[in-house]
Design brief:
25% helix, nine-stranded mixed β-sheet, homodimer, two-stranded antiparallel ribbon, alpha/beta, 31% strand, Stationary-phase Survival Protein Sure Homolog, Chain: A
């Protein structure tokens, strides 16, 4: 019998979130699971790391599963760094992050703690996938995602992922028709700030906003999700817009 | 006389950092300046946003310059959102972020609060540039950067930047030879955690690490900076690895 793969599981909603508990359950069918996740919700943390503060970490026993678990006081990216460089004996064969409660499709990938953990693992050379469900409710039904998660993870374990590639997988909240490989839709948030005055007389704001999809393409994640497909976007951490280098070389920047 | 451009200035080291004070001084030569910056250091915040907490903002008078200034309790990305959607009467013609105390070249762009503010502005359709100096000292000499910053900003104001492109500009800490348009080097951090025990008996960690440049290319930002050039990398927020979509289409993800 071949050795089981070592799978690192993390998220940004915190170690007790229903999404990560589902993901742990599915991963236990595939390999040896180690969970290193934030001890409290870290949504919207982007790719934040803890560089000027202490990082706490403790072992947890949350359910009776075979996995080993640790919670940390850090961000999702911190969790991956700590797992890889301190807690694990060997490099994991796979890192999965999520299942996030809410969308990380299109431009949301930029703000996503879930995806930052997966990207951090990708930077370490570990095949990595972020999973998200388009449902913010804490009691959302993650059941229909399980079979797709297992299939996608088995494919990544068998085929590998080219260095520098991370998968961003989003699940629709409606009945699932299948899977589509997509590009990130060109969409954005139009913010509205709700201005209030505190009982102490200080002005403060709540950030709210409306999501606007400006992209009509039928090859985008937003389109696939709208149609009831699971969207799979290959994401990279080389942010260089290579196609624009020639344009800039025409500028006179040396006075 | 033509109308002066409206320039939004922000950073991640906080509104009183010497880097942003230099940037404000240079921008006052070019346009009408509004500063919206964090009230305390936010380094390593990546593209974090404040979504479940209050955001404070107040007007500041830090020096006798002509600029208008606000500090906020938020992240660099929050500052840009608040500026564009609440504080400014019109869309700025340019957003500049920095000058960061320390490098945001190569993979550091992923963790950078300085660049997340510039990227947020780019997402709003505002031409945006992040500036960083490869010197972490609070009393670093920003003088040699001033002429280059002015030239780069004038070029962006005259030529514009294609929607979706943001410039990541890093200055060497040695004598400057000129400017190079570059790609992001393939480099990474190898983390080391310094494990300690608190007086109360809890284990905790400090994150430390060593920067490893694995990229020998002479078209990278790391190479340019090493040689004494200012590196200019065009950065994008479409994270899709378009070249990998065909590969994934060969996988069997629908079981």
């Amino acid at each position: 019998m071949s050795k089981k793969p070592l799978i690192l599981v993390t998220n940004d909603d915190g170690i007790t979130a229903p999404g990560i508990r589902t993901l742990i359950k599915v991963m236990n069918r595939i390999g040896d699971v180690v969970v290193v996740a934030p001890d409290s919700p870290q949504s919207g943390m982007g790719h934040a790391i803890t560089i000027d503060d202490t990082l706490y970490c403790r072992e947890e026993h949350i359910d009776n599963g075979p996995q080993k678990e640790y919670s940390t006081s850090g961000t999702p990216a911190d969790c991956v760094k700590l797992a890889v460089h301190e807690l694990l004996d060997r490099k994991p064969d796979l890192c999965v992050s999520g299942i996030n409660h809410g969308s990380n499709s299109s431009i949301n990938v930029i703000y996503s703690g879930t995806m930052s953990a997966a990207i951090e693992a990708g930077m370490e050379g570990i095949p990595a996938i972020g999973f998200s469900l388009l449902n913010y409710n804490w009691d959302a039904d993650f059941g229909p995602t399980e079979q797709y998660i297992e299939t996608i993870c088995q494919n990544v374990l068998e085929n590998g992922l080219q260095k520098g590639i991370i998968l961003n997988v989003n699940f629709p909240s409606k009945a699932i028709k299948g899977t589509k490989i997509c590009r990130q839709a060109n969409a954005n948030w139009v913010e509205k700030f709700d201005k209030r005055r505190s009982p102490m007389g200080r002005d403060y704001y709540w950030l709210t906003g409306e999501f606007i999809n400006q992209d009509n393409g039928e090859d985008t994640d937003e389109w696939a999700l709208e149609q009831g497909y699971v969207s799979v976007v290959p994401v990279q951490f080389d942010l260089t817009a290579h196609y624009y280098i020639q344009e800039l070389n025409n500028w006179n920047l040396n006075g």
